[in-house]
Amino acid sequence: MTSVMKRFWMSTGMSVMLAVTGSAVPAQYGQNTDNQNRNENKNSRNAGQNRNDQNQQNHERFDQHDQQVTRDWYSQHHNNAPVGLRDRDRLAPDEESRLQPGATLDSRLRAKTHPLPPDLSRELPPPPHNSRYVAVGGHVAQVDNRNRVQDVIHLELNVR
Fold it and tell me: How far is CA 4 from the centre of its chain?
């Protein structure tokens, strides 16, 4: 085979490959765009869940929305508040000073923690992995598995 024929077949083969792959890219791009549109529609329907998913990943502190939701819930339930959020559950001043972000709950404070009511828990985004929400002394705290306080929402217990 001569070198001219080799070049001819090589350039023909390259042209065919380019034509085939070039036409596949727009088709694939269009398919991805359709999939992206479907995902965007699905995501817009699940906007609340997406907020929860996002907050679960980076939710080391309560944001303003969390604080407002918690205060609204408490104002609706203060007359029949659960354990940990009642007036009689209020912490002593020395205990109050130990319930701060970054502090570790000692055994006395740990004994005063209670799970949040399920209806309030559902209103908040899931806590980060290895953390939980607790009611303690009229406050809602986010505590990690080492009993380190991540954040606290202080509630006014005397709402009437």
Answer: 65
Give burial (CB, 10 Å; 0-12/13-18/19+) of 135: buried
Report whether 137 contacts 91 (CB < 8 A): yes
Question: Taking residues 124-137, what's their average pLDDT?
Answer: 94
R_g of the chain computed on alpha carbons: 29
pLDDT of residue 94: 93
- The residues pairing with 136 across neighbouring beta strands, listed in sequence order, are 113, 139
Of 123, 28, 10, 110, the closest CA to residue 66 belongs to: 123
Distance between CA atoms of residues 150 and 152, nearest Å: 7
Q: Give the start-to-end residue ranges of the domains of the chain.
A: 3-45, 61-154
How far is residue 77's CA from residue 80's CA, in Å, rounded to a whole number? Answer: 5
Q: Which runs of E-coded beta strand occur in 9-138?
A: 113-115, 131-136
Per-residue pLDDT reduced to its tens digit, 43-70: 433 444 444 444 444 577 999 999 999 9
Q: Which CATH superfamily is domain 61-154 in?
A: inner membrane protein cigr (3.10.450.160)
pTM assigned to the model: 0.63
